[in-house]
Specification:
Length: 298
């Protein structure tokens, strides 16, 4: 019988991993980067993926597969996660800290049932989204631009769940940070739907929001967590944002049938990327799409 020969930990082929200490948060992040092999004749779009400790491999390999059929252009993919020795419990607490714009009085009540009996509550508190966004803009982006040939005017953010909430937060806190945003299953419920208040405050003075925005949700999410109202909240957010009629906003929303909060990540990732890059069927012309706004539901 043939024996398996161990060759070491599995990694994403062609990717490089780095550690970067964030001054804004006093946290070390693991930064995973995939840059296309071969000569780069012109600056490339760059896609930043939060929650990379869980999703970088899936995102990068999915992008590579889509590029084979030319459904996406060449790009640099940057994952923002935590060092490999960070425990899942710690990552869970840090996600709340990094992705949430404000604390939520119900936070500990929500976390406690998820912990084993007798497990102490996390000491890390939410509300560092502003610092995390500053880390990305002021520290990570310059580091990536110094090492890779990227287009500073073509940057995409992909965020899921609390990461999706963070993606929406970035729209209003720093609207020039990303030109394309893929917000998958955003946790709009956080802190009594505080993101809707942030949107209203932004709209009070903003004349435009020039971004290609894709929103998604799993059709089964509201059944799985009725109090979070994931589906209802996203419909409301989508309608409010469309009602602003920003001339530069290109927005699409998709509801994925038979998908739960966890399963919709993979299901909607490809649609989101193809949409914000203008390569999804039915979304080739953003100008035409804006003239006849619609919600795609199946």
């Amino acid at each position: 019988m043939a024996a398996l020969e161990p060759i070491g930990p599995t990694v994403v082929r062609g990717a490089e991993s780095f550690l970067l200490r964030a001054k804004h948060i006093d946290q070390t992040f693991q930064i995973d980067v995939y840059a296309p092999p071969g000569e780069v004749k012109k600056p490339l779009p760059v896609v930043y993926v939060t929650d990379a400790s869980y999703g970088f491999g899936m995102v990068q390999q999915t992008i590579s597969l889509m590029q084979v059929a030319r459904e996406l252009p060449r790009m640099v993919v940057v994952g923002i996660g935590y060092p490999a020795d960070t425990s899942p419990k710690t990552i869970s607490a840090l996600r709340f800290r990094e992705f949430c714009p404000a604390d939520d009085p119900t936070y500990l009540d929500r976390v406690k049932p998820l912990l084993p009996p007798g497990e102490p509550l996390p000491e890390t508190r939410p509300a560092a989204a502003g610092a995390f966004l500053s880390f990305i803009d002021d520290e990570l982006k310059p580091a990536i631009a110094a090492k890779y040939r990227i287009d500073a005017n073509d940057q995409t953010h992909v965020g899921m769940s609390l990461g999706g909430l963070f993606a929406l937060y970035g729209l209003f806190a720093a609207p020039k940070s990303f030109q394309r945003v893929v917000a998958l299953s955003p946790s709009i419920w956080w802190n009594d739907r505080d993101i809707l208040k942030a949107e209203a405050a932004f709209a009070a003075t903003a004349k435009d929001l020039p971004v290609n925005l894709f929103l998604s949700i799993g059709a089964l999410e509201e059944i799985g967590a009725p109090t979070a109202k994931m589906v209802s909240n996203l419909y409301e957010f989508d309608a409010v944002l469309r009602g602003r009629k920003y001339p530069g906003l290109r927005i699409a929303m998709d509801v994925f049938p038979q998908e739960t909060h966890n399963s919709v990540y993979a299901a909607s990732l490809t649609r989101g990327l193809r949409t914000v890059f203008g390569r999804a069927p039915g979304f080739e012309s953003w100008a035409s799409f804006r003239e006849k706004p619609m919600i795609v539901a199946h």
